[in-house]
Amino acid sequence: MALINPSDVTFTLVPEVTAGVLPTTGASRYEVPAKADQSLPSFAANEIASNTKRPGRAGNGMRRGMVTGTGTLDMRLQFAPVYLALMESALSGKFTTTGTKTLKAGLNDSTFSVLSLLQAGASGSALLEAASGCMVNKMSISVKAGDEANISFDLLSTVQAQATTDSTLTVTAVPSTAYEFAGVEVSAVTVAGNTVIQFTETNLEVTQDRVARGKLGTNTPIGIGTNGTRTVKLTMKAYRESFAVDALLTGQAQAFSFTIGAAGNGYGVYIPAGFASIPTTEFDSESAFVNIEVTAAYDATQATDLYITQL
């Protein structure tokens, strides 16, 4: 039996029709352009510890409770179908298919399976681990001037399966036209109508509390529930050139946006109603900077707190 080389493990993503069920035919299967240190989703059972006393001061072990999976897909940001599917799960919405393709954060949850192929091979010799019923509970996009653009998706999963046969679904590779975005591709940064502030960093974080649902008679969750409100935070760093940005940010609802990439190969990120905290000044060996933190709120015109477009 051959030992597994971590360098040879590949990851793919399959959008689901029925939550928790890995499609076997007629579904898309997208390549996940994972970083070299990408880990598999991990599953753990809620441990039901016994407080029963046994002879000789011994305990009485434990039982396994409900099993859930967690993981993170950490990638360099590109424009490819797998990112669109993950963004839809993170924002609980769907990209429109006509005109400017737009994804608005809402309440349309979607699930997917992450397939980790540990060892390729013929039926009976492959090693495939599937995490199904996945939903994204946190998405982060971060980019610095002169550096790479990163995106990560934290996920919760309800079903684990292991097989010695790979899925027969055809893998859709990242398009040949795609490239890893960097700070130079961030443009059209608009803060409360201002487009001339010189920014050096931006970070978008979208968080939605999700919890696996348990049921008597099984240790497999019957789905994932969503709790509380979605939190959308935008943090930005700019050069401290004056106090203009302090005067610009009123603390009331204002619009914030930026784009990454180019037409046909990029994204636009828009917060139509963001509330900025009081800007703070930061020093390092290079310069003085001003930090801005924005919390998104519902905007009646756009009927959402965040939307993303395909450029």
Can you characterise this structure?
There is one protein chain. The chain is mainly beta and 311 residues long. Helix content is 5%, strand content 51%. It has helices spanning 81-91, 244-248, and strands spanning 10-15, 29-31, 42-49, 62-76, 102-104, 112-119, 127-144, 149-157, 159-163, 171-172, 186-191, 199-215, 218-239, 254-262, 265-276, 280-283, 288-296, 307-310. It is globular, with a radius of gyration of 22 Å. The mean pLDDT is 95.
The profile of the biggest β sheet is: 18 strands, mixed
Question: What is the count of β-strands?
Answer: 18
Roughly what percent helix? under 10%
- Rounded to an integer in angstroms, the radius of gyration calculated over CA atoms is 22 Å
Number of helices: 2
| First-to-last CA distance | 48 Å
Find the structural class using helix and strand composition: mainly beta
What overall geometry do the principal axes of the alpha carbons give? globular
- What is the H/E string? EEEEHEEEEEEEEEHEEEEE
Average pLDDT number: 95
Beta-sheet strand percentage? over 45%
Low-confidence stretches: none
What layout of secondary structure does this protein have?
Blueprint: E1 10-15, E2 29-31, E3 42-49, E4 62-76, H1 81-91, E5 102-104, E6 112-119, E7 127-144, E8 149-157, E9 159-163, E10 171-172, E11 186-191, E12 199-215, E13 218-239, H2 244-248, E14 254-262, E15 265-276, E16 280-283, E17 288-296, E18 307-310
Parallel strand pairs: 2-10
Antiparallel strand pairs: 1-2, 1-6, 3-4, 4-8, 5-18, 6-7, 7-8, 7-9, 7-12, 11-14, 12-13, 13-17, 14-15, 15-17, 15-18, 16-17
